[in-house]
Amino acid sequence: MTDVFTPEKRSWVMSRIRSKGTGIDIKMKEILTHTGIKFEMYPQIPGNPDFASRRLGITVFCDGDFWHGYDYRRGKIPKKQFWRNKIECNMERDLYVSGMLRSNGWSVLRFWEHDIDGNPDKCSGKIQRKIRERSARRGSKQSGRGSGRRAARHDSR
């Protein structure tokens, strides 16, 4: 299929696609607000997640279906080599970034654009489960440390 735009016009059109403040980011912000946990939007964290809760160690990525290769998993691959290269690089980077964050103790949640748009309850449920999991883990670590300090303090009197 031939592009309907000239290369210059296509370049201009593509330059207008934002990476921050997108519709799916705004929808995800609304979903996260309802959790009652403070999530920072566009935190300065390696890997550039869209949201993060530093207290719980949770990062959230909102992945656009086209840009992050959702259709690859369904066998729909762009004909143009330029787009295949771009999307494949994004997919490789997504795997690398997720692994790097996990190895540094972060929990990584990735959501597809179509799920954020079409099934926000599914996204919310996944986030709520991760919050409970991380809160329980933090609580057990803190209670273990705290009781040890109290015992040590009590023994030294």
Taken together, the total number of domains comes to 1
Strand tally, please?
Answer: 4
CATH class: Alpha Beta
H/E element order: HHEEEHEHH
The backbone outline, from C-alpha atoms, is elongated
Protein structure class: alpha+beta
CATH architectural designation: 3-Layer(aba) Sandwich
Summarize the structure.
54% of the residues lie in helices and 11% in strands.
Write the layout of secondary structure elements.
Elements: H1 7-15, H2 23-33, E1 40-41, E2 51-53, E3 58-63, H3 81-103, E4 107-112, H4 113-118, H5 120-155
Parallel strand pairs: 3-4
Antiparallel strand pairs: 1-2, 2-3
Helix pairs in contact: 2-5
Task: Give me some keywords for this one.
single chain; elongated; alpha+beta
Task: Walk me through what this model shows.
Pfam families: DUF559, Vsr. Residues 91-131 form the DUF559 domain. With 157 residues, the protein is α+β, with helices and mostly antiparallel strands. The protein has a single domain (32-146), classed as Endonuclease, Chain A (3-Layer(aba) Sandwich), CATH 3.40.960. It has five helices and four strands. Strands 1-2-3-4 form a four-stranded mixed sheet, sandwiched between helices. Strand 2 and strand 3 form a beta hairpin. Helix 2 (23-33) crosses helix 5 (120-155).
